[in-house]
Protein 1
Amino acid sequence: MPELPEAETIARQLAGELTNKRLGRVVVSRRDVLCGEHTDLERVLPGRRVLRVRRRAKRVVIDLDGMLRWIVRLGMSGRLLVQSAEAPVEKHTHVRVAIAGTELELRFVDPRRFGGIACVTRGGTADRREWDRVGIEPLEATVGEFRRVLARRRQIKALLMDQSAIAGLGNIYCDESLHAARIHPLTRADRLNPESVKRLRSAIKATLRRAIRFNGSTLMDYRDADGKEGSFQRHHKVYQREGKPCRACGTTIRRIQAAGRSTFFCPKCQTKRR
């Protein structure tokens, strides 16, 4: 599932391709991937100029003139690809948007259909509702904000996975960050001392920034806007490395269940304190 680094990679690539360009003809093959105030994309998108492309949480956000905002949730297998309009249309391509003045188009592909596209009025009720349920941005959060979020009686892995608490983290980067911070995934968040909180915040930022440099992790479906795989999976320290030696100490990596998900950790680097 694309997480913050993958969404950030796509947003940066699309910013270079789309900013100040106008959108052209829209083809929608499946309407059940559309939501928000404006689902008639064939009518509202053509002629709109792209003002800005960015990421928020795990979403790619495209701001258009006319106070429109296009929010793309990648879900489990969603992809946003910039391809030639003449290129064969891949199976499960649900939306195609021409980039005016070019021979390119933006394509939304989602085999499992857990993702979707919302077109809303910027600053409107639907737009505010979209962001009210999303937590702090881990790359921007201050120590104080991070400490307040962690002051809860929940397992740290479960809390980090909660998008209403901290936005953008998923299974991969939670496990990698907890290992870097030397924190056991079942540790209760409100029992972390100030030093551990600072260490975890720094580990999360460092892990995410490094993953972005490698264009994210490709384990199954993820591809960037150019259709290329990420390469950060080659640098994972614990995630999906059960039975392999820890790259820090050599201890065998273990897998347990935490927050309802398979969780990978090093028993020596991440000792669970009583």
Note: Residues 143-265 form a domain with the Helicase, Ruva Protein; domain 3 fold (CATH 1.10.8.50).
Protein 2
Amino acid sequence: MFRRIYLDNSATTPVAPEVLDAMLPYLTEKFGNASSIHHFGQEAKGAVDKARHQVAELLNARPNEIVFTSGGTEANNLAIRGLAQANTAAGKHIITSVIEHSAVQNPCQDLESRGYEVTYLPVYENGIVRLDDIRDALREDTFLISIMTANNEIGTLQPVEEIGRLVRELRADGRKIWFHTDAVQAAGKINLDVEEIGCDLLSISAHKIYAPKGIGCLYVRRGVRLHPQNLGGHQERERRGGTEPVPNIVAFGAAAEMVKTELETSSATLATLRDKLESSICEIVPGTNVNGDREHRIPTVSNISFSSVEGEGLLINLDMQGIAVSTGAACSSGTIEPSPIIKALGSDDDRARGALRFSLGRFNTAEDVDRVLEVLPKAVETLRSLAPASRAQHT
């Protein structure tokens, strides 16, 4: 029986043992409601406060600027819709990009249905937004720029610090404009400093950094007004009603502290593994292309297209041999659609359909990479042999 290898850490990560140890007491004897004033409640409140400090330290933020949410999607919705609703006089124009996660694109589209206008910027072959395009898209009624820190599919890093400086310059001239960044894929992989970025709002999710699903946060710079999206309680300084999920919050805090402590070492190790995997695949498998910029990206992701191969078929083939990866293609009604992210790079349908994402994490090893390199070439060859159009090209 083969050993299963998990290379889909951008989708979710396993819970780290030390994170599980931190949260377990709050699933058993320390079960209090953090809003209660008795001992059990205050014990829970103390744990939430500690976690808030731990998450704030990961971002170089103040603890009272951290709003706990159910995850990155809720954080993005609170940022975009909450800002729009609380600042209606500031304008009705948003600037974002074509490669944002649907948790950003869908709230923007919802606002479009309510009379707002959204500019979706291109990213070109390297998968990176150009600052000049942002400047050109600015209007008098632009109130929000929302550009992700790192793309979830190709891992490219966007020029968030430059965008932050631009927004500060605009505000210095009296403009009412804010900057939000979805940093869900960047947390734990690169240093995130909200002061260096200069953002007003930043979203992260715990299950991308070895904590459980169902918890995340939105960083809200002091003074930024948001309209709450969850009504029914006074929690999170009136910004997000609902009983705090204390065990998950504790786990989030422990994970934030862990990834911050390990960041420099883990990033270097994972980048080395990623580069070995990527360069070896490109060397031993013909008809391969790396998608997106190879320098400006998080150290954990390699997105590679295999010509004349459906990414979905390759994913299934690898899974049958114990290797879990992912593809940006969506299977709908029996038709595999090409990845819109890869298409946004100017790639054709064949390259977009043949894209596969390998995303490494804390528990991956050199042996995992060796196993992929052992299995992958044969899997690609087999799938190509089944496609008549590719037979002449690759045999």
Note: The domain at 5-12+263-394 is CATH 3.90.1150.10 (Aspartate Aminotransferase, domain 1).
Protein 3
Amino acid sequence: MSKNSREGKKTVSSIGTRKESSLHRSLKFFYSGDYGVTETTVGNYVCDGRTEDGEIIEVQTGSMGPLREKAGILTKTGKVRIIHPIIAEKKIELYDCSGGLLHRRKSPKKGSAWDVFNALIYAPELCGLKNLTIELAIIDIFEKRINDGKGSWRRKGVRISDKCLSAWHGSVVLSNRKDYYQFIPFKKNEHFTVRDLGEKAGINVSLARKTLYVLSKMGLVERTGKRGRSFVYKRG
């Protein structure tokens, strides 16, 4: 199914779209649905979209922190769905200032559903909000970069010009506390450390630590003691 094909079926306001990537635009059109609207005002907020049934759509590609206050207020008016893309594969094209292609390559980094905890670390309370669903869109993207000296020092002046959806692999829907138990690959009352979680889940220690922080805030795991210098947890 083409995600971009829906764009011709909507009337879109220009509010808040000036710096919007093609990826963000594709996701908001798709999740708003054929008969929904985009760039719609709800109270004092401009939202990415609203479905025909009234569900508010917010596409958040980075940290969930900026949505803490907004989501808390919007969920009091009805259902809200936060769409968070998980980049399974990224292909990069680098251009010079005149538009000439310098090279193409595939990023070695591959995302997984666990990456949502990088986004939730600054807003774990979102997971417990009534009327809130977080949906992880598992996708591939194409990223266009321009070597014009206007980008960050980390990329040596190379600027990211746009990000586009290139493939869709489904989604993971997190609507209530029970849905987060899939991120605790241990039996009830089984004890484990951050490193144990990292090894079992195939993620690095930093991400495992963020995962346990969020799950602890949700009351799904609890700290029970220490094993050497490491804290020990168990499933709640």
Note: The helical segments are 22-32, 68-74, 116-120, 194-201, 205-217.
Protein 4
Amino acid sequence: MTTASTPLAHLPLGCRVADGAWEPLTRRQHPEPPHPYRSAFQRDRARIIHARAFRRLAGKTQVFTDRFSDHFRSRLTHTMEVAQIARTIAHALGLNEDLTEALALVHDIGHPPFGHAGEHALDKALRQHGLSFDHNLHALRIVEYFEQRYAGFRGLNLTLGVREGIVKHSHDYSAQEHPELAEYFLDRRPPLEAQLIDLADEIAYLTADLDDGMEAGILALNHVREHVRIFEHFYVAVQQRYPKADEKLVFNEALKSMLNALAGDLIEETLRRVSSAGITSLEEIRNAPERLAALSPEMESQRMEAKTYLYENLYRSEDLLRDQHDAAQIIQTLFDAWVADPRLIPPGHEMDIAEQGTARFVADYIAGMTDNFILKQYALWRRGN
């Protein structure tokens, strides 16, 4: 079992503007003069935090809707946890922490209300019109088009490095299927800063969802211990160290140790892969045969075990499936109603509907809603029908 305490040498691979391979990633679609005391990625981070779409994450489901408790993670608090984990890993690897943090903060900005159930429902609704919904691509449209905060341009005018990371942090897109993404080096690997975001996301939600699942009373401690090896390993160790501690505190300590072990293993395995391949530049990272940010085979096996456990015992539990069914019904109903009669949408969007088509516009409109707002819209629709 690896830990995060192993001394690590810093890699000279973080974004350096003086490096010719990195310089294009600091460019913006609309040229702006450099800031006197902030880097390009620091400015991107601030623009993301101040975006309206970022603030709305506070009202969007992560796993549990607010009918369960006010204490559970929202999409926003989850994002903050991912950012903290990702920045820590980037620091340990000597990567660019500002780029990493900006990517972590923006990685979920394209999610619709009701968590993954909402995303699946929107995708299903759009496929009836020959379209699809992808939260990464929707996030790109948010930062390039929907956010309107500047007089000189539409969108946030983020750097190419951040926009590439939005597109590619979790998986690769085919250049043949997505010619509109040609500027994002689809035939090449993203920088390590982007590669580690999806794994930091996994680390954050595996531990957080065990925590929230226990708090909700859906998961049982003994059952978790029996089926999640990595958790049991640390739970036993904490019990031995604190034999008189309250069970909840032992649980919390074990979860923290589990998170540290996953993060430490990611750091060590990424370092091992980069070192073993003799990689010393961004160009070599881009040309690598596979992504270099990864967990070791043993830790990856334990990660998958924990993830499978959560799918079988939490995400597909009766309580959450009921919420997911209700969410899908609400989204499909409103989508169908607004596509059939766009006049039901508040005025002022006629040009957007004409440019994008009714189905795409309605999906974008729904995707921007918080849970509470769409529930209010559904209540209004029901009263009118």
Note: The chain has one domain: 23-384.
